Amino acid sequence: MKKKFRLWGSIALAAVLLGGILVFALIWNGVLLLNNPSSQEYPVRGVDVSSYQGEIDWDVLASQNISFAFVKATEGSSYVDPCFEYNYQQAQQTGLRIGAYHFFSYDSSGDTQADNFISTVYPVENMLPPVIDLEFYGDKEKNPPEQSVVRQQLDVLLHRLEEHYGMKPILYATEKSYALYLAGEYEEYDIWIRNVISAPGLSDGREWTFWQYTNRARLDGYDGAEPYIDLNVFRGTAEEFENYPKPTSLLNP
User: Is the dihedral angle over the CA atoms 221, 223, 229, 234 positive or is it negative?
Assistant: First the structure.
């Protein structure tokens, strides 16, 4: 009898392990998403892309229940995403609202980073506010730069972009980078928060405006080194999104 119990116990354990492996594989391959926010609660959805998605067929991508796209433009003081110009131009031919984002460097001045973004991203009709992506890279998470130094350069970059584009930039952050550099400050700026495991919560109790809820979705219309694509939601209705801040400065021809 004991041998039978041990046998059935081993079978049950093996079944649990196999089930766990299967679920992990489905999550890893983007078949199951850890986060799946209600489309009734968050009807406005969008993507963010970079050169990792390779060549994008924007007509195909735009047809998949999305309303906006943020395109990576620049990083630091000199890097320009090699797919930015194509993505920015082609996305404008769809019905999507589009925006551009800049990956913030802790090793460059706010002024030179602003120069890089402004020289790359020209204003267009109905564009979304520029985004500053404030997250960690390299060893920065283990050795985070000093808060006062980061805020000093971030302030410069924010001021320059707001002055040029006529609207306040959006601040993108992970929950950790938000808590370290943004919490309790920058209340006049909208927050785009990343949490791909659970519903986000900002450490100071603020509400977010955009939420990147997964980095392992699969959509049609791109063919790059990265098989997955980031999905996001806007906190608000379709009407509120339509009236979401637009440029007030003169657009460049």
Answer: negative
